[in-house]
Design a protein that fits this description.
Blueprint (H helix, E strand, L loop, with lengths): L5 E10 L5 H11 L3 E6 L5 E7 L1 H10 L8 E9 L8 E3 L4
Parallel strand pairs: 2-5
Antiparallel strand pairs: 1-3, 1-4, 2-3
Length: about 100
Amino acid sequence: MSDGQTCVRVLISGRVQGVWYRGWTMAEASRLGLNGWVRNLSDGRVEAVFHGAPGAVGAMTTACHQGPPSAQVSRVEAEPWPEHPGNGFHQRPTA
């Protein structure tokens, strides 16, 4: 992104639903000052978009490999995301 910020879409696989993964993501992303959103996917994964300073986006993406204590993350896929997600960090409905 041209404003010195970066934006990525992250897909998290494993035991990541029903373990407070979305709530943990919202708390961590807010703590890091990121914009974006998180939601469950009907296939059992969690999807998130993180927008902000490159270091903060990188730290959040790395943190997704661990997640909250009850999660068992098996895979994290990250890719550049072209759309600005808006201001703040929020939870979206399951897709």
